[in-house]
Predict the 3D structure of the following.
Amino acid sequence: MIMNKEKNDSKTNNEDVIWFDPLETNAIRVRGFAWFDNDRRYRRLPASSDSLVARVSPNVARLSGDAAGGQIHFRTDSDTVEIAAELAAPSLMSHMTIASQGGFDCYVGSDFSDLKFYATTTFPVDAKSYRYRFFAGVPGDKLVVLNFPLYNRVESVRVGVKPGAALRDPGDFPQPGRIVVYGTSITQGACASRPGLCYTNILSRRLGIEFINLGFSGSAFGEPEIAELVSEVSGARMFVLDYEANAGTNGRLYRTLEDFIKIIRGRYPNAPIVVVSRIKYLFDELNPGTLGKMRRELREFQKNVVSALREKGDDAVYFVDGSGFFPDDYHEFTVDSVHPNDIGFYRIAEGLEKEIRKILKI
């Protein structure tokens, strides 16, 4: 058992809480950042790629600092858990909550299969730092999972527990390996109301496996250099390519999809690769001869690429029709007829969960 004698910031201790930095405390595990063990930073691409990514896609370079998909795991018998965070910028996007942009949310359970949502940080809209108490007066040993912000860079974060409380390693995910998702603003989490409702975080809880969220808002164009980085994630058990919503609008999907798959195959000869077409948009229905026609063609293109690769012998590549995730009242599932709300993310996660369980046999 690792007690609170772990290194902590004595300057911020007070009479009712002691603070621990995940960068310095072995009992706290940081998940969802594929290169965290090497770089010790809350970023989604490796430090060694900074100059390359800045040259290939300045937007991806900027967005890779957003902490989408990151998680903090620990066990404690503290009846109180707090968080203190410093952000790179205020959370001022108009179409997302400040909680989803720059906040953390908290899940607690006896183990990973028992996690329940407890609370989300609240803080002033212009704040770049905050302290928040997730709960108090909750006795017993418990697993705590905190989800990082989706659309802000976290400069530092500390976890606060009661003096004398135990802080223990949470152990591994129930399922081994990682599922790596490359995609768009939807993958990154726009516009969930809080971080835990991004579809990769929903799936991480429901499947009990680490997800690596490589969604880059408005910037998922399938560049070969980015594909190489995606393929470099260690321990990948599956790859999901969900980037039609960006690359389909400028023709890049046609030019990049097959090569993207081949780049992954160069490092992972046998890992399942799932190609997901875009979810339904109202504008496709309103413009069936233009936008609707383009989307039908893009869906068929992705399906045909997968079929051709399977005919050539790659039986670990799959196509999933994302337009089937939403029922007929799909227009209720977004905030702007494009980006999902919480219902939309739940439906995406539900649809992907069925396919992932079938492919990985879990």
User: Anything to note?
Assistant: The CA atoms of residues 182 and 215 lie 5 Å apart. Confidence is low (pLDDT under 50) at residues 1-14. Residues 178-360 form a domain with the Rossmann fold fold (CATH 3.40.50.1110).
